[in-house]
Amino acid sequence: MGDDAGVRSRVSVAGVSVSVDHYVGGRRLSSPTTFENRSPSDWSTVLAEVSAGDAATADAALTAAAEAFEGWAALGPTGRAPHLRRLADLIDERVADIAAVECVDMGMRHESLRNRVIGRGARNFRAYAELAEQHEERVWSSNGTANRVQRLPAGPAVVITPWNAPFMLATWKLAPALAAGNPVVLKPAEWSPLSASLLADLADEAGLPPGVLNVVQGIGSQIGPPLTSDRRVRRLSFTGSPATARAIGTAAAANIVPFTAELGGKGALVVFADSDLDAAARTAAGQYDDSGQVCLAGTRLLVEASAADDFLARFHARADEHLLGDAHDDATTITPMIHPTHVTRVEGFIERALAAGDKVLRGGHRHVPDGWTGRPEDALWIEPTLIAPASNDSEIVQHEVFGPVLTFQTFVDEDEAIRLANSTAYGLSATLFTGSAERAERVGGALRAGTTWVNCFLVRDLTAPFGGLGISGLGREGGDHALEFHADLKTLQIREDTTT
After folding, report:
1. 227-263: b or e for each residue (b if 16 or more CB lie within 10 Å)?
2. Is the distance from CB of 57 to CB of 74 less than 8 angstroms?
């Protein structure tokens, strides 16, 4: 690690040493003000006082990124790839530590983090290093000229990531930006900032040149505007709420900066009577994983009326298998929600649904796990909840809850299924269960979503485009789509009779 630019502060989280300061230009930088970071699993205890960045922090980080740009861009894909592969190797070596910290910091299941989620971060860096190296320029002749389309690094990028699965989603955005030649300023969510700090340590150990990766922490409303409105920023990538995206989009428009946003969803899970109902019910009950704090979740269950009773019986049996408890216990299937503020928000949706005449079919209450020794109000679990809305226009149907709350509706034919599935302003994902190949093509193609799964769920190919329709997002991530977003495309035309 380079010499610190401020007081170096580290804390022990789950036995792992984590810096609570920013990482700027290859050095740790502290702020005079801090914000509290608490664990969803033990809200009464402060994990850390984390440096809270401001306009000066944003300026320092963007200055470092701008100064690093020319050298990082000049390396080309083959020169950058070894750094990214080394970073991937270090992630693999530190999976246990990163998983331990993120489990405490965000509350996701430790089993999932250590066996699947954190390792995905390493795969992201390897995948984009390879994609960037393998890219072939388009070359053709026309009108007496030889033509080439080149990808040029665009410049400093600002990446703002959400609090759910923070490490994996940070690498998902960082990998294409860095592989394309753009230094990055990463701003993690203030509710789960610690694994991003570990990533900064690993980037330093991997030998990324100073300023290529910068991590600044802080309250979004304070450090977000100076980061997103700075004219040195040439790319903006954000995952979060539509409201915040509108503010970032306004800043991007003012400086003519390309902007990509993933803004959540209200996915339909459509089940036809000819499908494998047990598989459909198992998948539906699985939408409660991570306490429903997953943007891709199929939260609106739409079931063919003739199979509704059979499906519900199977669904309830599967949902009854869930165990709400400690994120470190491998037997746990539903962990605490991220923050008391978010619990209150989800409870508000349930309360308003009841007041509007919607019917709760299961759950609907706060839950205190067996053996809980803290204050009841510090238990951040909500029971897996299923609501039958009085109307398709009900708030619980039309707005993203981002908690363990699903809705249940029936349909009589394909047309009604498609109409209901496409009836919200969101369009991130959809899931379809059917035993008919023809219906899979017909209905699957008609569902309005950036990704539609048929007889499967959450199967991801890193080269496929990812993003949403409607208010679910803007632009596409994944594969060459992400690399081209982070590039300026240039057409080079040379007269074919040009001589040296």
Report:
1. bbbbeebbbbbbbbbbebbebbbebbeeeebbbbbbb
2. no
Residue 288 CA to residue 477 CA, distance in Å, equals: 25
- pLDDT above 60 for 378: yes
Give SS3 for 55: helix
Instruction: Report residue 218 as tokens.
Output: 């802080």
Q: Is the pLDDT of residue 146 over 50?
A: yes
Collapse the DSSP code of 493 into the 3-class scheme (helix H, G, I; strand E, B; otherwise coil) and give the result.
strand
**Distance from first CA to last CA of the chain, Å, rounded?**
48
Q: What is the mean pLDDT of residues 130-138?
A: 96
- The greatest distance separating any two alpha carbons of the chain, rounded to the nearest whole angstrom, comes to 82
What burial class does residue 443 get, using C-beta atoms within 10 Å of its C-beta: 0-12 exposed, 13-18 middle, 19+ buried? buried
Residues 291 and 336: beta-carbon distance below 8 Å: yes
**CB contact at 8 A, 394 and 356:** yes
Catalytic residues: 262, 295
CB 196 within 8 A of CB 166: yes
Q: Is 25 helix (H, G, I), strand (E, B) or coil?
A: coil
Rg (Cα) of the chain, in Å, rounded?
24
Question: What is the mean pLDDT of the segment spanning 50-59?
Answer: 98
- The Cα 382–Cα 418 span in angstroms is 30
- 4-7: Cβ within 8 A, 24+ apart: 4/28, 4/29, 4/30, 5/29, 5/30, 6/30, 6/31
pTM of the model: 0.95
Could you please state the CATH topology (level 3) that the domain comprising 268-461 is classified under.
Answer: Aldehyde Dehydrogenase; Chain A, domain 2 (3.40.309)
Q: How far apart are CA 250 and CA 228, in angstroms?
A: 9
Domain ranges of the chain: 10-263+473-491, 268-461
CATH of 10-263+473-491, one of 3.30.43.10, 2.40.128.190, 3.40.50.10490, 3.40.605.10: 3.40.605.10
Q: Which of 187, 286, 482 is nearest to 199 (CA)?
A: 187
Cα-Cα-Cα-Cα torsion 346, 350, 352, 357, nearest 10 degrees, comes to 160
Query: How many whole angstroms separate alpha carbon 126 and alpha carbon 172?
Result: 11
What local confidence, expressed as pLDDT, does residue 499 receive? 74
